[in-house]
Amino acid sequence: MTRVRDGVRDRALIDISVVVNDATPEWPGDTPWSCRWTWDIARGDSVNVSCMTGSPHVGTHADAPFHVDSRWLTAEALPLDSFAGLATVVDVTGLEGPLALESLGLADAGVAGGRLLLRTDHGIAAGSFPDHWPWVSDEAIGQLLSRGLRLLGVDAPSVDGRDSKTLSVHRALFQGGASVLENLDLRHVAPGEYQLTAFPLKVSGLDAAPVRAVLRRIGDE
Q1: Which pTM value belongs to this model?
Q2: Strands 115-119 and 151-154: what pairing?
Q3: CATH class of 3-217
Q4: Is the pLDDT of residue 11 over 90?
Q5: pLDDT of residue 211
Q6: Phi/psi at 169 (nearest 5 deg)?
Q7: How far apart are CA 132 and CA 210, in angstroms?
Q8: Cis-peptide into 25, omega within 30 deg
Q9: In the chain, which ranges are continuous DSSP H helix?
Q10: What is the pLDDT of residues 73-110, one digit of tens each?
Q11: How many Å apart are CA 201 and CA 88, to the nearest integer?
């Protein structure tokens, strides 16, 4: 949650990324993350060099439109400006999907910077894959897009419900020009406005890209 600047730890930063290791839960049936060593000092090599394998959807990541439609953009083409700027964190813990704007507390309110992050407390950060989580209704997604939504981030494994086959939320967001963040760690983040930085890796041709997502409290420098 902190960084070092001029020898002083900066407590304005909140790391909202999930740690990726062999124990990080993957979507059931997806490729888990793993690591092996190409060179190893313990074996007498001069350096340690690792090799990673696994799905880009393991851990905190940005979905690319290609994820749901092979005609759409892949991960290297994701718009960087969607992933940095003002963001609103909304707590929807204890609620069930689909969620209307009223459930989000946004019936008469806007979303800072057009970036909305939902804390459901049904994420993988605690070490297991959840069997359900709330999601935003198709109607509410349309309303948010009409108000300038440019990014929807969730601590859950998907912006759609777990059992969705149509992935209608993904499709509506991408068709509306918005971006998607999934598997955030918002367990220790209070509702409110923050500065978000969550750039996806520039990986060519993929349907998703790993992200290191960080929030900065507004007013803290």
Answers
A1: 0.93
A2: parallel
A3: alpha beta
A4: no
A5: 98
A6: -70, -45
A7: 23
A8: no
A9: 101-104, 138-146, 168-175
A10: 999 999 999 999 999 999 999 999 999 999 999 998 88
A11: 23
